[in-house]
Amino acid sequence: MAEVFPMKILSASEKAGSKLRILYLDKEGGFGGSSRSLYFLIRNLDRKRTEAQVVLRERGPALERYRELGVKTFLLERAPVYKPSLRNNLWILFVFLLRLHSFWYSSRLLSSLVKKNRIDVIHMNHDSFFVYGFFLKRFTQAKILIHMRTMLPSNRYSILQARCIERISDYLIFISENEFNRYCELLGRKNVKGSVVFNTFEALDGILKPRASEDSSFKVLYLGNLTYNKGADRLIDLALEAKSRGMRDLLFVVCGEDRGEKVEKTGGGTLASRAERSGVGSYFRFMGHQADPDRFLQDCHVLVRLSRWNDPWGRDIIEAMAYGKPVIATGAYEGFVEHGTNGFLHPAFDAKEMVDEIAFLAGHPEAVDRIGRANREKAKMLFDAAANAARISSIYHSLVARK
User: Most exposed among 128, 279, 315, 323, judged by the fewest C-beta atoms under 10 Å?
Assistant: First the structure.
């Protein structure tokens, strides 16, 4: 994949001659996909070339994991960040402004940390950290790299954010072509200083071996927060369709935080309560948020991603592919899921078609195996942890070498 703003290719002597200090700003503390992706990146960096240090905005499972790796870790809990949304942007901005004192305090701490530890590159692991860029750019000498992990909405608030990011960043990494194209669209041009590097996952053969299941149900896995935008309510539509067909050996395993959104279209309340009211509670097992979803990925037969955001390239899909699981998703981008090859991709949500596919997979274990092999091979090609970490490490060294 071509880089839009090419980086200098380092010679062997340059690669061996310097060890860079990288400070990572982690938004989720191990509770979300961006944080999990960052962990795999840091775990695979060449320790002879880079020294990683991490600032966690949330106290979570990442804290212990980084300490086990010997990575110096700092807590800056609830540091204010800013990210435009599809709606309620005036309220989001107002809430951020109410926390300006906390923002200035966090900015000073970050600046002090960068200078004290002689940081070469600040890697902001989420675009919502961009607000700190103005302060860090002014008071430190470190290069600023921003990892663009979300699709910015198409509105004036995102246009302003993109312009600010372009001003304060030295380089951008996009997790897919989709985030890159949206960013270019917001700026109104294609000449931007960044490139696409897919997220990573370590598809270890030992992990990928199937394990004995605790029951004989055909398990459909959902990974993610239970929100309207992520299409969690659509799981009930799938269960209702399955129930109408008399499919009794089907279980939806739901891993994610239920925020009990008050959405008129879904009736409000938790997804579990809505499932009970709809008469399909027995089709569900709600597991809450899972910082380590590996055992659920091992046990499931298929993963579903029912997002209303047309984004079939999330962390859940990456890990399902690495575990060799078929994927059923909504969206148009076939970079990861190719319809009929390693899963099923729908331009629009259709409960009947998706339950047809679930029923087919449940009745054809050989198809599950075939799709699983295709997914593992594609995951090894796209999400190789060592190769992608090496590429990002080369970007760090090129940034520092640039005057």
Answer: 279
The three state secondary structure string of the chain is CCCCCCCCCCCHHHHHHCCEEEEEEECCCCCCHHHHHHHHHHHCCCCCCEEEEEEECCCCHHHHHHHHHCCEEEECCCCCCCCCCCCCHHHHHHHHHHCHHHHHHHHHHHHHHHHHCCCCEEEECCHHHHHHHHHHHHHCCCEEEEEECCCCCCCHHHHHHHHHHHHHCCEEEECCHHHHHHHHHHHCCCCCCEEECCCCECCCHHHHCCCCCCCCCEEEEEECCECCCCCCCHHHHHHHHHHHCCCCCEEEEEECCECCCCCHHHCCCCHHHHHHHCCCHHHEEEEECCCCCHHHHHHCCEEEECCCCCCCCCHHHHHHHHCCCCEEEECCCCCCCCECCCEEEECCCCHHHHHHHHHHHHHCHHHHHHHHHHHHHHHHHHCEHHHHHHHHHHHHHHHHHCC
State the fold for domain 205-382.
Rossmann fold (3.40.50)
**Per-residue pLDDT reduced to its tens digit, 153-194:** 999 999 999 999 999 999 999 999 999 999 999 999 988 999
User: Percent of the chain beyond pLDDT 90?
Assistant: 82
Top pLDDT among 268 and 117 is at 117
Contacts 24+ apart (CB under 8 A), 101-110: 102/78, 103/79, 103/131, 106/76, 106/79, 106/80, 106/132, 107/132, 107/135, 107/136, 108/135, 109/76, 110/25, 110/55, 110/76, 110/135, 110/136
Residue 337, pLDDT above cutoff 60:
yes
- Residues of each domain in the chain carrying CATH 3.40.50.2000: 12-200+384-401, 205-382
pLDDT digits (tens, 9 = 90+) for 211-224: 555 678 999 999 99
In the CATH scheme, what architecture does the domain 12-200+384-401 have?
3-Layer(aba) Sandwich (3.40)
Q: What is the pTM of this model?
A: 0.88
**pLDDT at site 292:** 84
Cβ neighbours around 255 below 10 Å, total: 22
